[in-house]
Amino acid sequence: MTASGDPILAAGCVLWRPAPSGRGIEIALVHRPKYDDWSHPKGKLKRGETAEECARREVLEETGRHCALGPRLPTVRYAVAGRPKEVAYWSARALDGAFTPSREVDALLWLPPAEAHPRLTQPRDRDLLDAAVATRH
Predict the structure, then answer these.
(1) Calpha distance 71→52 (Å, rounded)
(2) What does pLDDT average to over the chain?
(3) Candidates 3.40.50.300, 3.90.79.10, 3.30.1330.10, 3.30.110.30; correct CATH number of 8-135?
(4) How far is CA 17 from the centre of its chain?
């Protein structure tokens, strides 16, 4: 089946924070019970919203954390029910806030990149993690 129609536009972040140990970073992974998957926070753009605004809003909604957008990461393209989807991503540093489980996201994990990599469900999310880590070197 080929993808047709206007793409679904979305945005998200590979969210990171300095590791509590003071060595390296930790990556935020969200668990979505609807799909039973682990991924980076992301979601669809609302009418009139920029991709940057959407990325920050989705991080806040899904992780409870404000964030500072950093380098732009590759745009991810795939089909959902035969319709193209384009997700703009940024590397983003977590700021203040606290996670509260919801129906959309019921768990949040902070893991070192090497542990986050195999936990991510989709290969495209692992590629994004690699790109985000590469921007920090």
Answers:
(1) 11
(2) 95
(3) 3.90.79.10
(4) 14
Q: What is the rounded CA–CA span in Å between residue 122 and residue 128?
A: 10
For residues 93 and 25, give the distance between their C-alpha atoms in angstroms, rounded to a whole number: 10
Written as one letter, the residue type at 11 is A
Burial of 51 (0-12, 13-18, 19+ CB in 10 A): buried
Q: Which of 115, 102, 98 is nearest to 27 (CA)?
A: 115
Looking at residue 136, what is its pLDDT? Answer: 77
For 45-96, give the DSSP string: PPTT--HHHHHHHHHHHHHSEEEEEEEEEEEEEEEETTEEEEEEEEEEEEEE
Q: What is the pLDDT of residues 8-19, one digit of tens each?
A: 999 999 999 999
Other C-beta atoms lying within 10 Å of the C-beta of residue 9: 15
Q: Flag the least confident range among 1-5, 29-33, 73-77.
A: 1-5
Summarize pLDDT for 109-129 with one digit per residue, the tens: 999 999 999 999 999 999 999
